[in-house]
Amino acid sequence: MFKVLVMDGISDMGIQLLYDAPDVEVEKKNGLSEDELVAIIADYDALLVRSATKVTDRVMAAGSRLKVVGRAGVGVDNIDLAAATNRGIVVINAPDGNTIATCELTFAMMMSLARTIPQAYKKTIGGEWDRKTFVGVELRNKVLGVLGMGRIGSEVARRAKAFGMEVRGYDPFLTEDRAEKLGVKLGTVDEICRVADFITVHTPLTSETRHMISGPQFEIMKKGARIINCARGGIIDEMALVEAIDQGIVAGAAFDVFEQEPPRADHPFLNNPKIIVTPHLGASTVEAQENVAIDVSEEVLHILRDEPFKNAVNMPQVPANVLNTLQPYFGLGLKLGALLGQTIDGAVSEIVVSYSGELTGVDTAPLTRHIVKGVLEKQLEGVNIVNAMHLAKSREINIVVQQSTAAKTFTNLVSVTLKTKNEERLMAGTLLSGYGERIVQIDQYPVDIAPAGNLLLISHTDKPGIIGKVGTLLGTNDVNIATMQVGRKVIGGQAIMILTTDKQTPTDVIAQLEQLPELTKVRELTL
Ligand SMILES: NC(=O)C1=CN([C@@H]2O[C@H](COP(=O)(O)OP(=O)(O)OC[C@H]3O[C@@H](n4cnc5c(N)ncnc54)[C@H](O)[C@@H]3O)[C@@H](O)[C@H]2O)C=CC1
Ligand SMILES: O=C(O)CCC(=O)C(=O)O
């Protein structure tokens, strides 16, 4: 039974999927301190959060069973991603579910700024009927600058067109083609600051976007501009903004997010009549909360059940078509890595993976992760596909990936070579229609083995009677041989024998096999 801890008031309707899952037990908690979370997290396989809970390295270190942290939303700045990767914990988010909610809040903010609705409301309910102070501006024919043209920024741009606004956009990843389709003119941050009547930011907070609008930008800003931040606190320099308002450069600002949340009681935004604030409500609609909770629940179930998933933040995204091609090979890759890892002694210095056939047309990185995980997992605890590459790198294991288009016997082939200081071993496998996973080569020897059950890999000198000796020794020790294959290049030369047995070969029997003078190496391979 998987235990899932749901924090931060995530929508019950959205997580119904988890309540309904027969293999999942859900517990909901709110407002736990870091210490309180550390004290209980060891009981859980998955943790679901919004933005309030800080998932620190300490929390993850205490989460000995923790496989996945799910963020019901976009921004993962409350989760220590590097620590999660080191610890092999998958971090997933729900990037699509709250786009419209945040876009609509941005418009609510823009119109509130244009028409000073919150200020007018406050006065009116205070008993004043003031129709002179609150003369607003129209959005029509105004220039809107959108910094960050991703999901939310693009939706904002689309709606702005309906209001008759001219949209200028800045995003390093926005192509001219896409900008044209959206009806957006491209410009730099400074160009946009010079001409925009409204500026809204929709980027993540990164070292590049921190204080993207600060003193120098306010200096060149069009007088009377209005600024909106429904993305992340810190993208706009809060103190520089207050100064720009005081100097009459900025006519008003609307902020849903703050450099520190919640802001201190004496934060200068809180008593400034030109600044509208909301408590990080961008995603707070019934629809968005349900959407993100559904998305994150589906992904959590996939991860807990070892099924493919798509929204991992600490792993490269895998497009659905690539995943469809690669997924059937994940099991084979894992087994090749795991079996080969048991054939060698000493520290692995290099893993060479070679793909051929239909596997050459796609980005095979997710499959390589499975192979590396297989290689490492017999030696290291807690290896998974999230941290496999990181752990390999931290152990200075060189990973070489090759794609071979040369004609091969198989329509697809995955070949893995492990190198240590003293030896090098190869295992190759394929998926055969009607037969499934097969190992088709070990070192230089062609074989045909299903990678399952108990395998014995024996290196020996090709001499008459060896097969009989091995069979007799196993038989007298009650180890029944199910299949046996022998590979050799030349008569009397080096050869391998690979056997599948009905039960594991006891260690003392392996020791007896090793005593046979013709046998150079005996390895029991388990999966
Ligand atoms: N207030 C709230 O409750 C919510 C806030 N957000 C925040 O809104 C932001 C945007 O979310 P999405 O549109 O879903 O993300 P997204 O990933 O679709 O878009 C972000 C865009 O920012 C661009 N970008 C990155 N660095 C940039 C830079 N230096 N200059 C200009 N553009 C840059 C990226 O290329 C990308 O197109 C995120 O920070 C997210 O956390 C999202 C949902 C709710
Ligand atoms: O969960 C929330 O309400 C915050 C949403 C948010 O900031 C995000 O998705 O990045």
UniProtKB/TrEMBL annotation:
Gene3D superfamilies: 3.30.70.260, D-3-phosphoglycerate dehydrogenase, domain 3, NAD(P)-binding Rossmann-like Domain. Pathway: Amino-acid biosynthesis; L-serine biosynthesis; L-serine from 3-phospho-D-glycerate: step 1/3. It holds the Pfam family ACT. Residues 455-527 form the ACT domain. CDD domains: ACT_3PGDH-xct (cd04902), PGDH_4 (cd12173). The keyword NAD applies. GO terms for biological process: L-serine biosynthetic process. Its EC number is 1.1.1.95. It is an enzyme of class 1 (oxidoreductase). The keyword Amino-acid biosynthesis applies. It catalyses: (R)-2-hydroxyglutarate + NAD(+) = 2-oxoglutarate + NADH + H(+); (2R)-3-phosphoglycerate + NAD(+) = 3-phosphooxypyruvate + NADH + H(+). InterPro entries: ACT-like_dom_sf, ACT_dom, ASB_dom_sf, D-2-hydroxyacid_DH, D-isomer_2_OHA_DH_cat_dom, D-isomer_DH_CS, D-isomer_DH_CS1, D-isomer_DH_NAD-bd. One of its GO terms (molecular function) is NAD binding. Catalyzes the reversible oxidation of 3-phospho-D-glycerate to 3-phosphonooxypyruvate, the first step of the phosphorylated L-serine biosynthesis pathway. Also catalyzes the reversible oxidation of 2-hydroxyglutarate to 2-oxoglutarate. Belongs to the D-isomer specific 2-hydroxyacid dehydrogenase family. This is D-3-phosphoglycerate dehydrogenase. The lineage of its organism: Bacteria, Bacillati, Bacillota, Bacilli, Bacillales.
